[in-house]
Each structure stands twice: as structure tokens, then as C-alpha cells.
From TrEMBL:
Gene3D superfamilies linked: Rieske [2Fe-2S] iron-sulphur domain
UniProt organism field: Talaromyces amestolkiae
PROSITE patterns, per the entry: RIESKE (PS51296)
Name recorded for this polypeptide: Rieske domain-containing protein
Ranges for domain Rieske: 15-114
Amino acid sequence: MPIKVGELSELLNARYVIHLSDGKRLVLFRLPSIDSSHQKPHESSDGWSYYAMEAECPHAGGPMEESSVDIEDSAYVVSCPWHAYDFNVETGESSVGIKTCTYPIRIQDQTVFLNYTQGEHDVRLIKLEAVSENIKLKHHQDSDNFTTTNTSIITSRSLDETSSFCDWAVEILETADPERKIELTHRLYTIFNNQETSSSPMALGKGTVVPPDQPPRQGLTEVKPWQSQYHGRGGTVKSRIAMLHALANIELWAIDLAIDICVRFATFHTEQNIHELPRAFFQDWLKVANDEAKHFSLLRTRIEELGSYFGALSVHHGLWESATRTAHDIRARISIIALVHEARGLDINPMTIEKFRKSGDLESVKALEIIHHDEITHVTTGHRWLVWICDQEETDPIQVFRSNVQKYFRGSIRGPFNTEARLQAGMDQRWYNIDDAVKT
């Protein structure tokens, strides 16, 4: 049965979640037409193609609205953010043998219709939810350098249309102002992904620039990690601000960590100089960086709504210390940052969210739930690329991970563990539950 989804003039986002009255959730993709020589029923006259598929990955239920998009054999393929299972958006077929359901889209008289042939005959559209990055940007003070309007391009004295991915990466790393950092990150994410499906993808610029030893910070008072104040239980506004401020500091460093792994290890080859890092590596970690920019913006906004501002409290740089210890080895970097620090966040996030929920701070809960969901995919990214490297080098990724934890992580990995979230990210208990601790 045909279900009206919306007018072409209203559908301006790249992705939407379709909520139907039978409880079904689908993803609507709006992507540039690959072949415009012959207009098909799901293509608009202005060069856009529309596709619909199941919102949950058939493998483990991953959110397909967060999938990455590639072109293979003149067709769009989307990959689940949890375990990288890929699906053709038209046929639903996957290179790994499983299949997802896709639904034909037809455009008639500037209106988009979904051909839904499943379940009840009177199924109707309940809600069309735009999938947004949800980054809450501010207009920057230095209007000569860049702005945040939709039609403008962030410019810089050292960036232009010929700048490579690594040029942008170093610019982001060397930016001390957090607002400028998140805007540059989001702009790079947008430009890179737009060009990735074009005939002129952005040059990576591997090995042409050098990242800073430590990204600078502006207007922040630094203390050592052990000097950080106790944040309390979240029962007062003051303690909630302190908790959000600490989390915002972590997210700001997380932007740099995701960007740094791309440029610092850009020329990496697997053992015996056989395999270099593919473009998907850079795209995956840029997605992580963009998520972290979104997280910082959500937390910074919430801090301001509660009457404070980011920078009002002291911060520590403990997370970057782990980056410094692993700056020589990509395997160690992924192990410690993604599979220890990020994975530990999956364990702690539900307890933090519950503290805010008990205090009645539901706006903060919304932001923290977005962050928790995204961080599952970040651990997945780390897991995927460590496994990829180990597969190429014919080593055991779990043993490589354990070895790096013993060498470079100060402390021990102890429960309680969020086993469900870790498993969603690809980490079963073999990775971390060794007699309830991995000791250094």
C-alpha cells in the first residue's frame, strides 16, 4: 500500500526515521543520484534519489540511521555502525550473506510515497523524524575567519579548497578555542562526506603535515587528575554542573583523539609494509570526531542553561596522557583510548544518567542518552579497526589488546561492566573479564 511520506520541498535532510502505526521503523535515505541519464521512479528531477529500508540491522539490531554510506558497483551501500555489516539500499543484500528488507519509493507530483507491503492494510505514517547531528553551534566572534550559517564555508588563513584531510586535521588539533574546534570538525565532516561520493574526493594528504604533541587549550585552569574535586551525587544544581563540566572536558579531548589518530598514523602500514589504512578508516574516525563535537556542544549548552559556562571549573588532561603514551603505535592507541577509556564510559554512563534522572533533570538525561548511544558505535569503531589490523598481520586481536593494556594502561580494568553495551560494540567477555580484572 502507498503511504505518503512528504513533499520533496520538505525533505531536505539526508536521512529520516519513518515511524508507522504498526510499530515499524524504517530509514529514508536522500542521496545524490548516481546516474542521472535516466530518471527512475525513486529519483527527483533535481538529482536526488530516495531509498527506504529497515531501521534495525538484521544482525544485532544496530541503528541503520547512523550507518555510513559508500558507493560500490554504481550502487549505494550502507554499513551498520555497530559491526559494519553492509547492505545495498535498493536490494537489501549484503556481502556477508544476510539480507535486510527494503521498500520501494515512488515520487509523484513532487510527493514522496512509500510502497509498504507488510502487515496491516491500514498502516499510516505516525511521524517522520529527521536524523540530525544535533550540534549546537555558536556564531564565532572572529567573523573574518569563519561563520556558522548554512550557506557559508568555514575559512581559515591556512585552509582553502585544495586543503587535504590531514591539513584540516592539524588545523583542528592546533585550535585552542573549543567553539572553533567543534565548528571546524563539523565542517570537515560535512565537506569530506559530500566529496566522498563525488568524482573528486578530498585528498588525504598522508605524511604531509605533523600533528602537535598536545593540542592547546584556551581559558581553562588545569589541575592534575588526582586533584579533581568530587562532583557529588547530582542532587544539587552545583554538583550537576560539575559533572557536566567534567564530561564536556572529556568530550573536547575526545575530538582531538579521534582527529589525531587519523593524522598521526596516516602513513601506517601493517607489518612487512603490505597494507595501508583505507579511506574508510579516516571516514570512520572523522564520524567519531563529529559525534564528540556534538557531545561537547550538547553538554556546553546544558551547562549554560543551568547558569554556568564551560571553563568555569578546573579541568585535567589525563585523557591526553594516555594518547601520549600510545603515540608510537596505532594498536596501542586503539586499545587504550577506544577499548579501555571509551568502553569504560559504556559502564559508567547508565549510572550517571540515573543520577540526573533521580534529580529530575530530564534535559540533561536527553543529552546523556544521545552520548551513550553514540559511544557504543565509537567502541565498535575501535574494535573494528584493531581487528582489521590484526587480521592483516595474522595476530590475535584479543591478545594484542591485553598486551597493550598491560604495557600502557595505568591501573586495572575492573567491573561492574555493561556487558550488553560492550557486546553490542563487539567486545564479549574474553576482551576484559579475566578473573574480574586485567591487572597492570
